[in-house]
Specification:
The chain is built from 3 helices and 3 strands; from the N terminus they run E-H-E-H-E-H. The protein is of the alpha+beta class and about 90 residues long. The N and C termini lie close together (about 10 Å). It is found in: Cytoplasm.
Length: about 90
């Protein structure tokens, strides 16, 4: 099984109330060096077999047509999950 990650973030000009709440909580916990937080979404897509260019192209299409709202969000990453992160993801599914 292969895994593809799609990362989506609010556009920079869009207010991020969740990010504001998180930065406020971090400050209350003493993490005052943090000045801003933007909270986004991460999708992990599983495909049969190894990830191919066709899988990545389909994931990019899904990212822009189904997984994000292009009016308020940007797709910031579509990539194959490899190494330790892929092993951990596979372990979680088992």
């Amino acid at each position: 099984m292969g895994h593809i990650v799609v990362e989506v973030m609010p556009k920079q000009e869009i207010l991020d109330p969740q990010g504001k709440a998180v930065v406020g909580a971090l400050h209350r916990l003493g993490h005052t060096a943090v000045t801003d937080v933007r909270q986004g979404k991460r999708f992990t897509l599983t495909v049969d077999g190894p990830v191919t260019e066709e899988h990545l192209a389909a994931a990019r299409d899904a990212a822009t047509t189904a997984l994000s709202n292009p009016i308020i969000e940007d797709v910031v990453g579509v990539y194959e999950l490899t190494g330790a992160d892929a092993a951990q993801t596979a372990g979680v599914e088992a």
